[in-house]
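lol ok so funny story. i was supposed to be doing the assay writeup but got distracted and ended up predicting the structure for this chain instead. priorities right. anyway since i did it might as well share w the group, maybe its usefull for someone
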Amino acid sequence: MDSQHTICNGYGYKELLLTKYAPQKFTELLSDEAINIELLKWLSKWRREPNGDQHPIVLIHGPPGYGKTTMAHIIARTAQFEPIEINASDERGGELVLNRINNILNSDPLFNHKPSCLIIDEIDGAQDTSSSGSTSLISFLVSLIVNRDKPTSKQSARRPIICVCNDLYAPALRLLRHSLSKEFIISYDRPSNTLLANRLKSICDEEGIVADTRALLQLCTLHNSDIRACLNSLQLIIAKSDRVTVRSIENSFDLTKDVHLSPLSILEALFSSAGNQRKHLQKILNNIDETEKVIFGCYENYATAKFFDDKRLSRVNMALDCISWYDHKISGKDIGNRNLACYSSTVLLQLHLLFASPTKQHLSYPHLDYDLMMSRKNAEVILSEFLKAIPATLSRYISIPFAISVLVPYLLTLISPDVTVFQSTNQTLMGEKEKMEMHRLMKLFRTYGLKLKQEKTFEGIYYFSLEPYLYPVFTI
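and the output, tada:
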């Protein structure tokens, strides 16, 4: 047996759970069912109309370790395609790689084999290897989108492409992200702890291992539903015992060991005054590498946590002042504040002294900070593109705070007239009032570099969207 798929458990070699129990069927996927069905519909349409006017690319993004690439492979096989995977971050062949991709996209299946579906993994790690007279991978993919209505074009795709990435807003993806309509950008979220714990329970049953459901839920929580990490940890646990209990999970994540602790584990230590937690608290705080996520977790959980406070909520007020100080002095964008980063553990220690309680706490994983960070990142990219499109004679007078608080809200109101004003899209049938309103809007769009982009849904319905889409700017 291949050594890459086995480990030594002390009694011999055993196949890795990660390989042995990898999903093989559509019904075994842990991803959101709505996402699975939408992707399957898109691929099925390609299967029915291989020479039709199909959109060539779908981009799937989400955190690593949650099964994005596995989902792409299984759904491609379900739609009767043969998935062929290329890792964009590993490929350094320039024109050779592009020629290989071109061959995959335009080749006919041989001997009644299934048509191919190209899966490009880690597309956010693609390097611009273009040289004189050559094309980068991202530029090539963008050209496939632009030329999808030109079957005779040399740069057209006769096979579907699924791109997979961790960071949707990586600089390398800027052109591709702008070229794709929103319905062809799929956000892949982590599976629920309950769903993953049930899968782990079925694996334990298959292996003849007695597993406590509470322990498996704790394992999923510790790894934040990372499927790979959960299976690897479970492999190590059952290598030593034929039972999986809460105690065995806790022992495998002994706080005295030099292991990466999840933000939730650190939060539990911060909110607990139990001796075994406080004993190793300083070591935890000195080795933490997700301080900001933990502090956000304190902010998200303090309202429901159980700890002693007086009627004036003195501890809560002190904690909020402490978090506010961290936000302004350490987490701020000012480069000079980086010398204060060494005080991050002191902030966490202060929060521990304020929130710690012997009462057992029911804390939730800090999701809000990640969602806000991604929302802010998205809004910043959109705002930057908007300001670049404005003529320099005007943009030099516009600051970012002014654009967010005044210009963008006012502009969105100006370009959103009552739709009943326009009785017809044909200008010859418009009245004077409608024509004046139309000319006013066109002038505003030219002044601020805005465009209306025609897009099409999976059902084939056409609609117009604003580009850049300014509404997320309000989340900054």
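Confidence is low (pLDDT under 50) at residues 1-13, 130-134, 255-259, 419-424. Residues 370-475 form one domain.
back to the writeup now i swear
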